[in-house]
Amino acid sequence: MKTAEEILAAIKTALPEAKVELVQNPSVSGQHSLVVAPEDGLAVAVFLRDDSELALDFCSNATGVDWLDKETTEKVKATEVVDGEEKVIEKTVKHIQPGYLESVYHLYSMRQKHGPVIFRMRTANRTDQVELPSMTPVWRSCEFQEREIFDLFGIVFKGHPDLRRILMWDEFEDHPMRRDYVDPDDYEYEPTPHDEVLKRAQEHQAQQNEAKQAAEVTQ
Amino acid sequence: MSTAAFKSYRPPVIEPSNEGELLEVAMGPHHPSTHGVFRMDVALDGEIVIKLKPVFGYLHRNHEKIAEKASYLASMPYTDRLDYFCSMTNNWAYAIAVEKLAGIEVPERAQYIRVITAELTRIQNHASAIGFLLQEMGASGTPLMYAFREREKILDIFEELSGSRMMCNYMRFGGCRVELPKDWLEKVAAIVDGLPRFIDEIEALLTGNEILMARTQGVGVLKPDLAVNAGITGPMLRATGVNYDIRKVDRYGIYDRFEFRVPLGDHGDIYDRYMVRVLEMRESVGILRQALKDVPAGPIVDPKQKVRGFRPKPGEAYGRIEGPKGELGFYLISDGSGNPYRYRVRPPSLINLTVLEDMCIGQNVADVVLTFGSVDIVLGEVDR
Amino acid sequence: MLGEGIVKGLAETAKNFAGSFVSKERLTTVQYPEERVEPIENTRDFPFLVYDGSDPMAGLRCVACQICEKECPPKCIYITKSTDKKPDYVGKPQIYPARFDIDISVCMSCQICVEVCPFEAIKMDTEFELSTTDRFEGLILDREQLAKSNEYYNKIHPTEAAEVDARLAEEKAKVEAKAKAAAAAAAAKAAAPASGETTAKPAPQKDPAKEPGA
């Protein structure tokens, strides 16, 4: 089995234009991954599958990860002129690293019996540019898994033959696996005297009653 | 960047004899053969299936989200409820993923116990899978009841060990939860000695049965290249003739110490899947005999491992095992806190259904039920 | 010959049918509820609270630390701490649960509360016939319903309970020895031997190790 660095080098020789990076995994598992630019995704995937030495013919696991916007603060010293005097003022500068959605594929080879090679693609942001190329034409096993990512994370896979919701119902609007997903508050009655669930359900009920009363008044 | 033409797999397309006469049927969600709540939207041209779309999600509870909000340990009992036939292997897969993530060593004794429980799980799963397949074929009762009679013995053994028949919640990161009860290994040995007789019985009942052969041979055929591309694993893959058993490939746990063969099929039809399951049960009996011989003494769990407050270092890991239904994998991302940042289950049942349409197109409706039954799924794992 | 496999199969079922009249191996069904299988020792069902002595509320081992409430995966345990204190099994004054509810309609019998409890206060019951006509309030078990004696625990899980009792007795002996040593030291210091004796003797309580079944 080649290491992730060797695979990266192999991709670079075969596809010199492809933008591929290696991401180190700090865990003891040592499963490092390759981040591929979305526009090169399909070409790299086909290479990984059809290269005779790698022969990663089996895409075991495809999943999504949601990375939220990261806010980092940094203290910066700057000289400013205050009341005609020069002073060194310390300022805190906030950097917002935009979040993104990520699709992760774990590839193995059934022919060569090695793996895993981890292959990632990242969207530009989490809101409107959430398109990634679909791997279903390359590995059929991604068909349902990519539908699941679309359903639960909201990544839109270009080139997927049948991109519909799979686990949630068709009318459902949100993407429940996103980190900032807010649970709906219309719970059924729960007898457990637990906490905010009951409180929120009661608030929801009160709101509904108000809306109902308002509707009756207008009639 | 443009890509040259590459091989891609799609379900076959059949031209219907008369477009206007197509009948669309929703098989399920409440149908005795669907093992739970599962729907197949089928388009029929007379008796022939033209199109088949599986519909899931009736049992969806977002197990992954629940796990991301709970501690690492708290997800362990939830894994029992994925594939509720094989809670021991589910536990093991999750434990392996966490052990990879945090670099935990498992004591020898615990490794042996894991192998013993996993192989017992495999036997009872395959036995009931065969029983259900026959049930769907119309052999109401008898084979299923024979299978359940054996399964009951194994479940009793699990109850003695872990306290629960099906929701074992037995494995822990770095070992197992409790020490074996007195005489447990002897009881397992007695059951294992009785198993070949049961397998012979099932084989006498079914293997040569002309009705079974007529209904299953050449039905639901899956080609090896499609099976590999579609990520099919477990007995279904091996029935197509692809030699891929994660116990042999990854040699996780201590499987490199045992001698066993990997049964393979030739045709990839339902009969081959049945035969592969029967032969795998025989191999599992062999593994059990070898494992029971030399269970060492020692600690059952890594003594450094504490029950509460488990926080692995940041990073990610993918751990997988050969579950009775196929490759069961867990993908975990840790951000250093007490609960996983990302927790993903790779469900063999869901991914094995990818090719259901390919296998069913061009067949009769009655064979759809059989083909579906031969995949051996549990909806708790498909929908999660 | 066509039909040979079917005949072979029928012979197998006939063997089982005839065998079921003579062999218990082949007739495994049990006519519940008239007949019952023997209970398996490790069986777990829903949790209960262990108490020592004869008064359930005074003898509760639980100190309302709320670890189980926090660790419970489906969050079915609800605890309110008391404002006053009562002595525990070694005689140390401890907070006790003023309210301890378990919603067994939510509980999934995973035993994690038992594993994380540092005081051996919560254990798994084997009682499974818990049907009730009230599906909400009837399935919330409160402190009084949950409290079961240590003798009961010894009866349902003898091996495990014996280990627990031995461990508790050892701890208690350690604490007592420590208290005695402290008392002796205090006595030597103050030269008043009676002063330390009272702290070494906890509130009236049975020694769990000496109970029947231990």
Automatic annotation (TrEMBL), chain A:
Species of the source: Acidicapsa dinghuensis
Instruction: Please list the reactions this protein catalyses.
Output: a quinone + NADH + 5 H(+)(in) = a quinol + NAD(+) + 4 H(+)(out)
Cross-referenced Pfam families, in alphabetical order? Complex1_30kDa
Q: Does the keyword Magnesium apply?
A: no
Q: Which InterPro entries match?
A: NADH_quin_OxRdtase_su_C/D-like, NADH_UbQ_OxRdtase_30kDa_su, NADH_UbQ_OxRdtase_CS
Q: What is its EC number?
A: 7.1.1.-
Entry keyword set: NAD, Quinone, Translocase, Transport
Q: What is this protein called?
A: NADH-quinone oxidoreductase
Similarity comment:
Belongs to the complex I 30 kDa subunit family.
Q: Which SUPFAM superfamilies match?
A: Nqo5-like
Domain (NADH:ubiquinone oxidoreductase 30kDa subunit) spans: 35-182
Superkingdom of this entry's organism?
A: Bacteria
Q: Briefly state the protein's biological role.
A: NDH-1 shuttles electrons from NADH, via FMN and iron-sulfur (Fe-S) centers, to quinones in the respiratory chain.
Automatic annotation (TrEMBL), chain B:
Signal peptide location in the record? none
- The residue ranges of the NADH-quinone oxidoreductase subunit D domain are 141-306
Topology with regard to the membrane?
Answer: Peripheral membrane protein
Give the EC number(s) listed in the UniProt record.
7.1.1.-
The answer to whether keyword RNA-binding applies is no
* Keyword Aminoacyl-tRNA synthetase tagged: no
- Can you say where in the cell this protein is located? Cell membrane
Q: Which Gene3D superfamilies match?
A: Cytochrome-c3 Hydrogenase, chain B
Which reaction does this chain catalyze? a quinone + NADH + 5 H(+)(in) = a quinol + NAD(+) + 4 H(+)(out)
- Tell me where on the tree of life, at the top rank, the source sits: Bacteria
| Keywords recorded for this protein, A-Z | Cell membrane, Membrane, NAD, Quinone, Translocase, Transport, Ubiquinone
Name the InterPro entries for this protein: NADH_Q_OxRdtase_suD, NDH1_su_D/H, NiFe-Hase_large
SUPFAM superfamilies from the UniProt entry: HydB/Nqo4-like
Look up the coiled coil feature and give its residue ranges: none
Spell out the family assignment given in the record's similarity comment: Belongs to the complex I 49 kDa subunit family.
Assembly and partners?
A: NDH-1 is composed of 14 different subunits. Subunits NuoB, C, D, E, F, and G constitute the peripheral sector of the complex.
What function does this protein fulfil?
NDH-1 shuttles electrons from NADH, via FMN and iron-sulfur (Fe-S) centers, to quinones in the respiratory chain. The immediate electron acceptor for the enzyme in this species is believed to be ubiquinone. Couples the redox reaction to proton translocation (for every two electrons transferred, four hydrogen ions are translocated across the cytoplasmic membrane), and thus conserves the redox energy in a proton gradient.
Q: How is this protein named in the record?
A: NADH-quinone oxidoreductase subunit D
Protein species of origin: Acidicapsa dinghuensis
Give the encoding gene's name: nuoD
Automatic annotation (TrEMBL), chain C:
Source superkingdom? Bacteria
Region of interest called Disordered, as start-end residue ranges on this chain: 190-214
Annotated ranges, domain 4Fe-4S ferredoxin-type: 53-82, 98-127
Q: Which residues form a coiled coil?
A: none
Keyword annotations from UniProtKB, A to Z: 4Fe-4S, Cell membrane, Iron, Iron-sulfur, Membrane, Metal-binding, NAD, Quinone, Repeat, Translocase, Ubiquinone
Name of the protein: 4Fe-4S dicluster domain-containing protein
Q: Show the taxonomic lineage.
A: Bacteria, Pseudomonadati, Acidobacteriota, Terriglobia, Terriglobales
